[in-house]
Amino acid sequence: MSAHAATLLVIFGATGDLAQRMLLPSLYGLHRDGLLPPKLRILCTGRSALNDEAFAHTVRESIERRVAAAERDPAQIDGLLARVRYQPAGVDDPASLATLCETICAMRDGDVVFHLSTAPRFYAPICTALGQAGLAGPGTRVMIEKPIGHDLASSVEINDGVGRIFAEERIFRVDHYLGKEGVQNLLALRFGNALFEPLWNARHIAQVQITVAETVGVEGRGDYYDHSGAMRDMLQNHLLQLLCLTAMEPPSQFDPSAVRNEKLKVLRSLRPIDANDAATHSVAGQYTAGAIEGVAVPGYREELGRTSGTETFVALRAHVDNWRWSGVPFYLRTGKRLPSRCTEIYLEFRAVPHSIFGDEARIAPNALLIQLQPEERISLTLMTKTPGLDRSGLKFSQVALDLDLHDAFVEVRKRTAYERLYLDAIEGNGTLFVRRDETEAAWAWVDGIFNAWKQAGTTPKNYPAGTWGPASAVALIERHGHSWRE
Q1: Is pTM, for the whole model, over 0.90?
Q2: Is 238 a known active-site residue?
Q3: How far apart are alpha carbons 341 and 320 in whole angstroms?
Q4: Which of 31, 176, 238, 319 is catalytic?
Q5: 178-416+436-478: CATH homologous superfamily?
Q6: Each residue of 365-404: pLDDT tens digit?
């Protein structure tokens, strides 16, 4: 694959929600800091019949809404807009697509990145149109957003459609979690320090918890969400990537093949959850009316406007059956309308094999907490002696060695995930993108759980908005002597 930086970025779906919330503000941040290639031009397209001036107005609005006032510079916004053109096209309208491809051919002066910020069902038709226009050969690459498909079969179909046009090494599957600073900090923590890796295994770690909790409901995405649910939208998509980075073996080097090979091994080592395990290893929930931060909110069905059996909460007890992790439970949970917004990875170490301080000392296990949002923080919990004269024996307290990444790097501007991912795609670096075999291995495991639910007759259990899911989610972990970190 050409290693030349792209000189043209084409964004399909540029008037959509993702583009307005994340993509355009991220491109502004890169432009303002002089990180985009000087020759890079940006061609945006969508269904909306806008001219360049009207689209420029939406870009300004997006930046004003999403970028802090202190970081907004009118001259830099104008500079970004000087790079941007807009041309309407319907992905289901061959004539407008063909006209768009003519424009791309005329603008092309080097490598091109196509970003398909559309529904996955349009990925293959768009790629086919690009291929027919001669825009899929060397020097081109395509970014497509996960989740890809609804299950393994549809994922294979979409990947086949895209793969017929673009070679695998030029397909950049986007999981924006992989662009987050905290996710890469997990790799730095594991493989850049001598302290942790010798302990990062079943001999020293008792359990791992990965939580992605949201306080919001479906927020106008009801039809999409009801089709996907928490398992497809979040667990298959983001949590399994976090599990892979937590559990994988050290790659030989930090490059696309080595990192993705190790992630794939983890996915292929996941123990299937079948109908016999469904009740003890999985929980599905759906929120009912409740309160978030003291404000009353409706239940999922009220928000949706109809009855539904879609899960808005999932908790799983997973096992990675290999030498490093044999016997260690990985507890995964994600849900909407939970009490707080957080994404975190929590590793609890095994207790000391023998306490010399007697039964009254109450020595709790050490733990490592890696928080990705709302703030990025790494915290190592240790036991220390409680100050005092200790006439009746030593007393212990838990203390945390805290690294607040915001405070530690206060002079460094926090980058958005898409700033990093755009730069990597423009430069042709696929390390933080997902390979086809990874996506399909994740779907195969998740499809097995859906089949198990179907065979076992599992349906979502109700939980009030503002709580940590159904009571059975607590039982899932406590029956093994563990507790969720809250």
Answers
A1: yes
A2: yes
A3: 27
A4: 238
A5: Dihydrodipicolinate Reductase; domain 2 (3.30.360.10)
A6: 999 999 988 888 889 998 888 787 776 777 888 888 887 7
